[in-house]
Amino acid sequence: MKRYLSAFVGLVLLAAAGCSSGQPAAAPAGGESGAVGEPYKIGAILDVTGGGSTLAIPERNTLLMLTERVNAQGGITGPDGKQHRLELIIEDNKGQESESVLLANKLIRTDKVPVLIGSSQSGTTLAMLQTVQEAEIPLISLATSVQIVTPVAERKWAFKTPWSDANIVAAIVEDMQNRGFTKIAWLSVNNAYGDSARTEFLRIAPEAGIELVLDDRFDVGVKDLTPLMNRVKASDAQAVVIWALSPETAVAVRGHKALQLKQEVYVSHGVATPQFLELAGSAAEGINMAAGKALVVDQLPDDDPQKAVLDDFNQSYQATFRDPISTLGGHAWDAFHMVIHAFSKVGPDPARIREVLENDVREFVGVTGIFNLSPEDHTGLDARGLAILRVENGSFRLVRTFSDP
Amino acid sequence: MWAQLPQVLVSGLTLGAIYGLVALCFVTVFTVTRIINFAQGEFVMLGALLTVSLAGSMPLPVAVAAAILITAGAGLFVYWLAIRPARSASDLTLVMITIGISTALRGLALMVWGTYPSPLRPFSQGPDFVVGTAVISRQALWTLGTVAAAVLLLHLFFRHTRVGQALRACAVNPLAARLMGIRPVLMHQIAFALAAGLSALGGAVVAPLTYASYDMGLALGLKGFVAAIMGGLVHPAGAVAGGLMLGLLEAGAGSIRSSLTDVVTFVVLLGVLLGTRVQPLGLGEREIDAGGV
Question: Do B104 and A275 touch (CB under 8 A)?
Answer without folding.
Answer: no
